[in-house]
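Work Package 4 report. The design task specified in the project plan requires that, given a folded chain encoded as structure tokens, an amino acid be chosen for each position. We show below one input record used in the internal validation round.
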């Protein structure tokens, strides 16, 4: 629960000079960061981290922002104790590192978290958001998991699941126009496949001039000209969740 003497500095802003409003918990074999809203709710959102892992302040900030908007937010360690990627790592070793961290093999962990949210937190309507690696994981869950109501994939790497687009639940895709990891041709192809195969609500939105990671960028790295798009992306994400949860 948020510390009452140190109210959570989240709305749709970008405060990064705080330690997080939530707490770390152990859920069976998974460590997780949980933040709850001041009022009780039966709505929850699973936050799936990027390659930098569940302890990244940027990602915890997004969980806190969801809690400030009325959701129970949980960011589990989907690497299950394996080391997160570090900026000091050699990119030449990235493919090998990724082999043991498959965004399409998180179903066991998601089931454990769903059980926790339902039994320990009283959640009845549960959605999921994810960034980069986590955005790809959201695509996987929207194809597979019947218990989630909706998903938001933020710059999720399309190539992991580019052959499938028959989603079970409403899905919102946030992409950056100048993403060095996700070429716009891939986004166009995704849109074509969704148009052909997708029977549920979906939206694909490209934010002009933005680069990979823009929605959960930390404050000191935000350029003034990007700020309106970052705020828009955060609001769009919240609005999508509000619509479907």
């Amino acid at each position: 629960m948020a510390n009452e003497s140190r109210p959570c500095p989240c709305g749709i802003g970008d405060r990064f000079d705080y330690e997080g409003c939530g707490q770390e918990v152990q859920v069976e074999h998974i460590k997780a960061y949980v933040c709850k809203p001041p009022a009780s709710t039966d709505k929850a959102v699973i936050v799936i981290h990027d390659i930098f892992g569940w302890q990244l302040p940027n990602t915890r900030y997004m969980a806190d922002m969801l809690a400030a908007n009325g959701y129970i937010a949980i960011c589990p360690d989907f690497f299950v104790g394996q080391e997160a990627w570090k900026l000091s790592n050699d990119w030449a070793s990235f493919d090998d590192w990724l082999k043991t961290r498959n965004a399409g093999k998180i179903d066991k962990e998601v089931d454990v978290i769903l059980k926790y949210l339902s039994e320990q937190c009283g959640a009845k309507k549960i959605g999921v958001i994810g960034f980069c690696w986590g955005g790809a994981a959201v695509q996987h869950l929207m194809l597979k998991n019947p218990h989630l109501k909706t998903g938001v994939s933020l710059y999720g790497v399309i190539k992991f699941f580019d052959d499938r687009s028959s989603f079970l639940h409403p899905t919102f895709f946030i992409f950056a126009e100048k993403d060095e990891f996700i070429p716009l041709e891939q986004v166009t192809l995704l849109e074509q496949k969704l148009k052909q195969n997708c029977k549920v609500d979906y939206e694909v939105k490209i934010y002009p001039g933005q680069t990979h990671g823009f929605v959960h960028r930390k404050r000191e790295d935000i350029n003034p000209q990007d700020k309106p798009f970052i705020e828009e992306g955060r609001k769009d994400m919240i609005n999508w969740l509000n619509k479907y949860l």
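The chain has one domain: 9-244. Validation will be extended to a larger panel in the next phase.
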